[in-house]
Amino acid sequence: MDRSVTAGQLKDKSLFQDTDDSAVPVKGVCHSCSKLKIFLGALAFSFFAKGFSGSYMKSMSSQIERRFEISSSIFGIIDGSFEIGNLMVMVLVSYLGPRVHRPKVIGVGCLIMSLGAFLSVIPQFLMGRYNYERITVTVDNSSMSVSACSPGLSVSRPVTDATETPSAMKNFGCEKTTNSYLWLFVLFGNLLRGIGEAPVMPLGVSYIDDFSKEENSAFYIGLVRSSGMFGPTLGFLLGSFCASLWVDIGVVDIDAISINPKDTRWVGAWWLGLLICGGVNFIASLPFWFLPSSLPKEGQNEKMKISHLPVQGDHCKTDSPVQPQLDFSEAVKDFLPALKKLFGNPIFLVFIFLTILQYNSLVGVITYETKFMEQQFNVSVAKAIFLIGVILLPITIMGMFLGGFLIKKFKLHITEMAKFACITFIVAYLLNLLYFTCSCEVLQVAGLTAPYSGLKHLSFPKNNFMASCNADCGCKLDQWDPVCGDNGITYMTACFAGCKSSTGTGKNMVFHNCSCVEGQGHGLGNSSAVLGQCQRESCTKAFPYFLALQTACAFILVLGGTPTYMIMFRTVSPDLKSFAVGIETLCGRILGGLPAPIYFGALIDETCLKWGTKNCGGSGSCRVYDTKAFRNVYLGLIAGLRAGCCLLYIVISVLIMKRFKLDGKETTDIKNTERSTSKEAAIDNKKEILPCARTSEESEETCAELLWHPKAFGLYS
To answer: What stretches pass through the bilayer (predicted)?
Structure first.
């Protein structure tokens, strides 16, 4: 027998009547049936997984360049392949989202991301051991010392492994020229990651917004976003750990390696982290296969049960709403009018241009920041990645949450948010200009950036590596195995330093009787050289100031990132929110995320002073850069792009202030009036009233996803 329970009774008691007339708490009965909670947990982990793998891939830029002996511009193409894959499906997924089985599509996306990570690892097992470039030495049987400079002998051939003969090396290198194209596996793997990542955010956020209570939507989306924030941090920490390991760990004797992680020939275990990322993405896909395409509305379901509630049976069992069928012809017919309506909005149009410039600068920074820190400040790639993971990312997370908190705390209106975003960005831009003051001297390489005489500020012919002190050594110009002389000058190889003997092995090898060092007024006791480049003390001392400045800039920049993104949601029609996200992401990535790493990398390549050499000839990855030119190109590009952003911030602020004035009254008066209107009136007047500014409560819930947008965070992949 069924009985009805009134709303007042349920509100007072918050109880259901069980089959034995005993009281059972509502939450206790329905908790096990809440598939929405399961979806929230699965989506949070998928956000973590995609951020984890995306940040790890970004951190491995230098390692991949060196492993495949490619330039920065080629890696830019590899990095941009993620955007290509994402763009292939992003708009379609955003537009058709509510018409498909969203949990299963997200599960398929996670599987594709996993497949892409595993595909990128394949070259490691096809290429064999990594053989870094170094010179051969002759052994004097009488003293058991080794000589780099052997007058009359052409002994300076590139050796790739201590246990490998030159002839074996030659055959190995030239028989496997196809290895030069194995980086295509990484490119296609990254392409698959981009395809798989596309449905996670738009479908996941819309699923939560559709089936959760309005008052809970903001909390749920914030919870998912904040859980995903741990992904980039742990991804960079994993990247730091893997970059400190030798690429062929477990296969070669680490003690026999003569280079360290600060050397530009060092390659970390880039593939190891990709295996972990692939496994994490695979696990993230599993829960979505067991979730329904739709759920009862979290709030409405209980209200329906209140008026007519059965006493017996399963109190949580309800029929799910019927999933709407996809009418493809109707969807295509509505596409162009929706697109025209969006781009007919001048504020949205300016916002798109702003997004494009911001994507360009952010992608350039994320992709090449570790390389810049390595070349500019003498820090290893592993250390640079670690510092980004433990300092910069947590600071940006704090700034992002503080920005959202300020919006809620002070109930900022759209005009106030526009001003706040504009001011914070301009302040961050001015701080950005201080980067140019963190100057660092160019590495002094004999014959390349400094004369063999050792006298600074002395003009000399560039790229003149031969001198009287090494003319009889038979050195080859296409080698890079640097040594640091006692005079503080770096020589391309011990042969170019004119070293006649050495002691020690591996990393501890010290060369003696170096004629080019001795010829600069030093005695015989000071004519030695050690493996590796000379350290630039001024650069090392400037690094803490650079890191502090970078942290402050990042914090202020993301502080205004949240209100910036909310501008879009509050200036488009509610029915076009999801579509606007897709268009914004499409334009930002196709005109920002895709070209930025390519042209950043190409311009950085122009500052290279010495290229590595492949076994069978041809240029490999860059060994040493002109640090001054590198700094000017890298920081100049960022400053130029952000100068354009400053101008667009001012324009969009002016447009917003002009648009949201009605009959001479400020929008704050409009907001007070809207609080007293009904929802029906708000819908009827949605063309005149801000789509997302009906009530303070509704604006926080409807636009909650903005508080955790990846663009404000700087890591969207």
So the answer is: 36-53, 74-93, 105-126, 229-249, 269-291, 342-361, 381-406, 418-436, 543-567, 579-600, 633-656
Q: Which CATH superfamily is domain 32-132+181-299 in?
A: MFS general substrate transporter like domains (1.20.1250.20)
What is the pTM for the complete model shown? 0.75
CA 237, 241, 244, 247 dihedral sign is negative
Percent of the chain with pLDDT over 90: 25
Minimal CA–CA distance to 290: which of 49, 39, 541, 555? Answer: 39
Our measurement of the distance from residue 181's CA atom to the centroid of its chain's CA atoms, rounded to an integer in Å, reads 24
Amino acid 597 reads P
445, β-bridge pairs: 490
Beta-carbon contacts of 95 under 8 Å, excluding residues fewer than 6 positions away, are 331, 335, 578, 579, 582
Phi then psi dihedrals of residue 23, to 5 deg: -80, 135
Least confident of 44-53, 331-340, 362-371: 331-340
Residue 422, H or E segment: helix 414-432
Do 448 and 610 form a contact (C-beta atoms < 8 A)? yes
Residue 357 has a pLDDT of 95
Alpha carbon distance 583, 587 (integer Å) = 6
Cα separation, 559 vs 235, whole angstroms: 23
Give domain 332-440+539-677's CATH superfamily. MFS general substrate transporter like domains (1.20.1250.20)
Cβ neighbors of 245 (< 8 A, separation 6 or more) are 268, 269, 272
| Domain ranges, ordered by start, for the chain | 32-132+181-299, 332-440+539-677, 444-535
